[in-house]
Please model this.
Amino acid sequence: MSTLSALAHVQAMESMRAVPLTEFRHRRLSSRPLVIIPLAMAGEAGAPLAAMVGTARRNGTLLVVAQPRNRDQRFAFAAGLGRIVMEYINSFRQDRSGEGERSRYTDTPQILVPNPGGVRTLADLGRMCRFRATTGPYAVPEVVPELGMWLTFLVDRAEQAGSSVLLPVTGMLAEHWATGQSTLENQNLASLMAWIAPPPGLSVEQAMADAENPDVCPPAGPSTSPEFDNRDLAPAIRNFDEASALGDPQALADAESDLRELIAGQIQPTWRMVWQAISLLRSVPEAPRAAKRFESDCRAFTAYSDYQDTGALPQRKRDTAIGAARRLGQLEHALAEFEADMAFDDRFVLADRRSAGEAFAGTVVEAEPGRMVTTDKNSRVPRPLVTVLTEDPLRLAADTKLISPSMPTGHKAKVVSVRRVGGTTRVTVEITGGMGRARVPKQGTVPELGQYVAYLPDPGWRPSPQFPASDATPWTHSAPDGNDTESAVPENTAAEEWGNED
Amino acid sequence: MKAPVDGRLAALRGSGKRLDYNARSLAALENNPRCTLRALLDASGSNKAAIAAHVGHPPAFGQSVFAITRGNAFEAMVKDNGCAELLRVLRETLELTLPEVAYEDLNDVGGNGRSDKRYERTEEVLLRAARGDGEGTLFDHPMLRLLIGGHPAYLEPDLVAFRIDGRFHVMEIKSFPIIDGQADPTQVRAATTQACAYIIALRDLLGRAGIGAEAVSDTIVLVAPKDFTNRPTAAFVDARKQVAALTRQLSRIERIGELVDLLPDDLTFDLYLDEDEQPRRPPEELAETLDQVLKTYRPDCLNHCEMAFYCRSRARAEASLDVLGPVVREQFGGIDTTTMVMGLARGELKPSEDQVEMAAALRHAARLRAELEDLGGAA
Amino acid sequence: MRTDDGMTPDPSVPDPAAATEAILANMADGGHRAVVVDSPPGAGKSTLVVRAARELTEGGERPIIVAQTNNQVDDLVERLAREHPDIAVGRLSGSSYAPSAALNALTNAVVGRTLADLTGCRIIVATAAKWATVRDATFGWAILDEAYQMRSDMLLQIVERFERGLFVGDPGQLDPFTIVGTERWIGLPHDPTQNGVSVMLEHNHGIPVHRLPVSWRLPLTAAPTISRAFYPFTHFTAGTGADTRALEFRTTGFARTDLDETLAQAFTTGWALHELRRRHVPRTDTETLQTATDLAGRLLERGAVATCERHRSGRELQPGDIAIGVAHRDQADLVRAALVRTGSTGAPGVVVDTANRLQGREFEVVIVVHPLSGRRDATAFHLEAGRLCVLASRHRQACIVVAREGIADLLDSHPSTDPVHLSVRAKFPDGWEANQIMLDKLAQHRVAA
Model:
């Protein structure tokens, strides 16, 4: 963190309101995101309790598992959620553009959950569903493994920096707004919203207090509050169990609707708050380079969709040696790109790097626009020198390659010298690219006297790593007894039980 | 520990019943060893939850009945039929050779459930086993004792196994799942902290009979549900570092006298309970007392310490940068409050000699923010 | 001259020549796909690499050498070419590489962009990154230098280039790292973020692991402490005796008594802790960084003469013999700028870098800005044993640590909050323990500023 971002948090704490950390929203926000609020039962291994799901604030569907320990009911829940999610995903598998290799869908699904716990719950659900068999003793509807595979795809993809196919709303908010509380508290959606947009008539302090009171703001999941569990949910589930034991259809229907009502009371405040957060986020302009990352999401979505169309196998439990190495390369590449893109797009992010001495901005005070040099190949090329006066605490070394968000695309430069004079710094840079091919630089490609310019280091280009073929893991990464040639589909998947059956 | 210190600690606690260290207070100790308030409250056996509630900041550490039920059901299932499922897991998953297995239940002693009696029985049985003339290889709910600051805290591991490679191993039975060989690191950490206390207590028990520390393994066996099933699986946890860390932190408690000496003589956290165990002390007076003791609030305390909401409210009231967490705080060096940060950033406060450099960085950052906001950045 | 805690090298410790012979014998017997050599700081790793390469060529092999940085490759090429003038040594490099004058002067060293340029070479050296771009060539043997700093995924990119490997490295230095925060591979034997040696050993049993037992770099004053702090299970000793190394000044000091006292402590005992006033400061604290700079400047100004087994009659220390080691890049930038500001012609020649970049390098005197200096909290980064190990084990003569008072309290009240994972062996040495041992040692050499 830079002094600048830290100062933003202090400003927020002093003024008791959130302050912006970025100029833009760096995540794409779909015009039709699918919001899922998953709730899980405490103590059970990822046992779903309920979910509210839908593409608009007004059309949320509430799915409830009346007895989360009952295996059939969990299946029914997974199938119900699966049908909604698949209908949504399939609606993006219609429009394609481009030919052959370049053919791809023009839009991607986007699932939004309230917090990072929501992502983990979907990951667990994906893991739980993707290996289920659709025939045999514990057969499930086809949509269950299909949901499992798609959720796993989305969760995996979400690890990639800059992707927007699956995002926690708290993360998007905290990327844009600094609050006067800690990262831990920022994971509570209601606490975070208390800073950004407290409910009408409430101060931030009051809203913060409410946010931590489960009776006013039920937790955004995946866990429900222990008080609610003990006071309301446990008796309601007991009623349901008793009614089903008695076989009284009316009592059962009553117990079930009581349960739904209880859970609706817990989940609806979060539902409304997520949609409120979405409309707040919509009011923040999207970063220019978000489009490039969206393209990358479209490619990944198309590739996975095509794989599904040709009969996909479920994703492995754990990555193979080569799969893991390949994924690490992709994740690192995506993160480096995302950080570079944000600094290039966003004056706030650039300022962050300026405050850390990794970038600078200022006014041109000297210029030698006509300077030419002779290259190794004995040709004369323009290499203008400009000197920028800045107050930034710059610590870039000579020869650092630079790019500039304030100059036309393709502009390249390098640091020649850095001289500190009192509280200011004079940086002389040589313009090395982006001036056109002629012997005289194109108009506007060289900073002029008095012009305000910003520079940051060129992140450069990194080659994508090449690994051995997936079926030829070398000796250093595979055991001779071939233990890790585990097939993609584990044995006895059908027999794998779901939780407690009592 | 010196008797006067003990007396002083008892006076700090006052009328309430002494509370022993437990899993949460050990976790709070590990998480924030620096905090004087926490150290004094724990060492004096004060009821932190009652104190926090009385000053208007009750802790929120409720436990769901579902989690409790599930935990108990799972442990019972693992131990059913002389730990049949457990043995299967130890043999199949961890590939252990357990030559002969004898199960010994130490849950109660002839109907006597008192901790000290159960401790004596445990001591006798485990020492016999360690000397090679006992039957047992699996000991169910032994009662261990850990002396913390001179006071016994009774601890009850789920299970201690002997003769895995000829050494005692602490086993923790937990109901959070191990999915594809991985489990939630926070939960594993909590289970490990508990198990480390058992390892230290067990070594202490054996050590007093002249048996070396190596008789107890630093490796914990964690037994938990496999994936999404109800069947157990197991994994080893290498706890060497955590055992060393907890040992260090427990030994710091021995130095509590140094902290006590700094307190005013009449300071007490006593709630002045009446016959119905209701506090009679005016909350404002208690709060004033708490304010006289140094506390080190970290946002992480919210996960571990009953006093956390109270400490956070004090930190907020003092405009302390502690509220924002160590990552933000680190940027400001020796500056403690938002008032000071903003005063220096705006150039309204004259920096002391030590603050000159920080003030320059802050003024630069403030200029940058002003520049961004002027240019009509985001809303 | 001086001893460390009264410990002297134990003559019964395995002799280094025998260790080398055993390694070469393992390589020659054809029974192993890999041979691993763990080398503590300055234990003759490069000597071993040069020797092993020669033996391989004599056996008719055409070995390749994999190093991690261009500097390391240059050093190896130079040494190989100089010590084996009869062997043509190839240096495979990228298009922007410009060979140094020293390299150009060697007649038996060839620089090439592709393997085709180096067909006449018996030994080919390149960085791992460069080897990763080579396709369709397989060599009998590879020598992988600084192998513990090479990530498993990098090994996977180059492993098809060779049939057998000699993995040489220092397990006590910094582990490779990734900026990506993911837990998905934890516990896997092929975790791509782990170092290549560990992953290879996980999958191949019966691989001989050797250890070089003697540090030729670290003086007798340093070896026992470094060994105890950072190599708790594999002790090593100093290869030089008590009277071999010495530092003295050409001039007497009087202008800056605080600096001179610290230098005197370092010159006579091999260590000094220059302790600044207790204060919480950001890591870019000028006073701390300026003090490190001033110590280097003062050392050069007064003219220090170093005596050692290579220069028995003494040699004046040059700027390049001195390094200033820090934890963060911004600190390094600021120290470099401060060296330039001193106005001294020599000062900018002092090497300033982060622990990561000082790995594998050697200097006469090293000035360390303690990673925990002035901090309120120790993070895993600042507490990492490998970081302090690199910083405290680069020197042949003396190590000076600059720190603010308060590290002892910081360690004393350090919370234990690292995540715990299933089925993962704890990494040793523990950062806390290693820091504590080092601090205890430094406390004996404390000079309050």
Q: What stands out?
A: The interface with chain C takes residues 159, 318-322, 324-325, 327-329, 331-332, 335-336, 356-357, 395-397, 420, 463, 465-468, 474-480, 484 of chain A (CB under 8 Å).
